[in-house]
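Ex. 9. Protein: NADH-flavin reductase.
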Amino acid sequence: MKLAVIAANGKAGQLITKEAINRGLDVTAIVRSTNKTEAKQVI
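Predicted structure tokens for NADH-flavin reductase:
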């Protein structure tokens, strides 16, 4: 399953993103600034 998380570097967004990755989902994290983001791939 694919999931897009808007505001993924916010408090709730971080928790949702981590849980989705742990469950094996294909996650696209949408953030305003990549400065505070640990990304596997930046597009």
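Check your answer against this statement. Strands lie at 2-6, 26-30.
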